[in-house]
Amino acid sequence: MKRLLAAAMIGTERQALAWPAAADPTGTLLADATASAPEPAIGLLRCAAAIAVCAQAGTCGTPAQALPEPAAAELRPPLQDAAAHTGLDVALREGPARLQQELLQQLGAADLRLPPPLLPAALDLGRRQAALRPALTPVLGERGRWLAAQNEHWRYALGAAEAGSAETRWSDGSLEQRRALLAEERRRDPAAARERLQAALPDLPARERAEMVAELAGGLSPADETLLDSLRSDRGREVRAAAFTLLQRLPGSAHAARARARLSPLLMRKDSGPWRIEPPTEAVANWAADGIDAARPKHESLGERAWWLYQLARQVPPGWWTAHTGLDAPALLAWARGTDWAEALLRAWLDALRNVPDAAWCDALLDAWPAGLLRESPATVLSWLPRARREHHWERQLRGDWHGGAVGLTELLAQLLPACAPGDTLSMPLSHGLVAAVQDTLRTQRLHTDYTLRAYLPELACVLHADALRALQPLPRSADETPALADALATLDRVISTRCRFHALLAPISAERPDR
Predict the structure, then answer these.
(1) Are 341 and 426 in the same domain?
(2) What are residue 125's phi and psi, to 5 degrees?
(3) Are the beta carbons of 70 and 146 closer than 8 angstroms?
(4) Which of 161, 207, 322, 457 is most buried (most C-beta within 10 Å)?
(5) Which long-range contacts (CB under 8 A, 24 or more apart) does 161-168 make?
(6) Alpha carbon distance, N-terminus to C-terminus of the chain
């Protein structure tokens, strides 16, 4: 490959490509391609074509002396429907990422695997998009894992065979396989899962330790406190952050008690007067053990005392403030905005909600969003709400009942889409409302000028309920579409058709498998 790249960069007229003869079939093919070419440039292109085919097969250049063992027997059948096969092929190559995620998840839920011709494209996609790997690796099958072993760029997908025992999947499996095993065992036997993880932690790199520790959120209990408390001094920053997050969710933990004890003296009132808060006037030596940095970052907008208050307050769930002051969330938000420490408190509460979501606090924030004090979008908070409460806010916006004014479809999708995790599907009522808004947009030809909305629609088609999507088939078209608009509508139509096809084909199979 280096020889080919050098000739292409310098130019075959200045440096002819000559491939030395070799005993293996690949080397012979490349040598013949250059020797028999009528001109050097054609020889280079022939070699590039041959190497591309080799790369698709999982190897590039000269093969190993001994052929690898064949792949193990498959346990899952491949996807066979021709139309679904074609839709999946295009989705893996062209996206959007939400569609790729959903289709792979649906394959896994239906206990199917990817068709062999799609494995190279799927493995290359997983190399570029790590977020897809948990959905991708289970549907690669044995042949996919075998193929991953032949290409160094695909080795992320290597792991134990599906038929392997729990011990084999843990010792030889990929990170995704080990996380899945830990989550399964956590549901079945939390103590055994914790012991398994504790034994493995010293040998894992920091990123993997953090991801595995996060799995303890399932079945979290006071029995986990000892392990989590020991991780407060882990050498990995991400690991410490994961441990602190989980300790915050244990109100009876020593860490949570220390956080309340630090904050409580700062919050005071005289008789029945208004509450006041005063940040610390100096740092305390033992703060560092609980993840509190005394040194204010250089580019931090908060002053030193506000920085300390922010860090102390973020370690206490917002529910404590309600219980301690007797004020509900809307009243506390209004109170904070009247203090000198509004930004510190609001940022702290937002971070605390990220770790310990509280629906009443999320609703209060969304009803009176302090845009000038928070950098985040309301979509951040919406993603922490249960789906029904989240959709309540979106339905209000769709009706125009949002802070006294109407919200356009473009503005609504700007916060709705980031708040939907990969694989999320909206309810039928909200989906019908959004479909009606899209139909109105198409009839009024707003897409001719609203380029942002045009980009959002394929993403929206990935989160709408599949039964509501059918109302958009066929899409209304007009004779005066620009080429760019025609391409955008063709992409939207493809996403809709693919989702509808997969839903009709795989949803009944997945429904019969409640264990997956």
Answers:
(1) no
(2) -65, -45
(3) yes
(4) 457
(5) 161/72, 162/75, 162/76, 162/138, 163/72, 163/75
(6) 43
* Shared-domain flag, residues 323 and 407: no
At residue 477, the pLDDT reads 80
- pLDDT at 277 (0 to 100): 95
In a domain, 507, yes or no: yes
Q: What is the pLDDT of residue 178?
A: 86
Amino acid at 45: L
Question: In terms of residue numbers, what domain contains 480?
Answer: 387-511
In this prediction the pTM is: 0.73
* Predicted local distance difference test score (pLDDT) of residue 516: 46
Query: Of 370, 362, 460, 481, which Cα lies nearest the Cα of 409?
Result: 460
Q: Are the C-beta atoms of residues 105 and 131 closer than 8 Å to each other?
A: no
- 249 is written with which tokens? 């969710």
Which tokens in the block code for residue 376? 């985040």
Are the C-beta atoms of 430 and 468 separated by less than 8 Å?
Answer: no
Q: What are phi and psi of 206, to 5 degrees?
A: -60, -45
* Domains identified in the chain, total number: 3
What distance in Å separates the CA atoms of residue 254 and residue 224, rounded to the nearest whole number?
12
Enumerate residues 6+ apart whose C-beta is below 8 A from 51: 1, 4, 30, 60, 61
Q: What is the pLDDT of residue 278?
A: 95
Q: Which residues of the chain register pLDDT less than 50?
A: 61, 404-405, 516
Residues near 11 by beta carbon (within 8 Å), at least 6 away in sequence: none
What average pLDDT does the chain have? 87
Is residue 436 in some structural domain?
A: yes
Neighbours of 291 (CB within 10 A): 19
State both tokens at 185. Answer: 């065992």
Is 412 inside a domain boundary? yes
Q: Residue 80: inside a domain, yes or no?
A: no
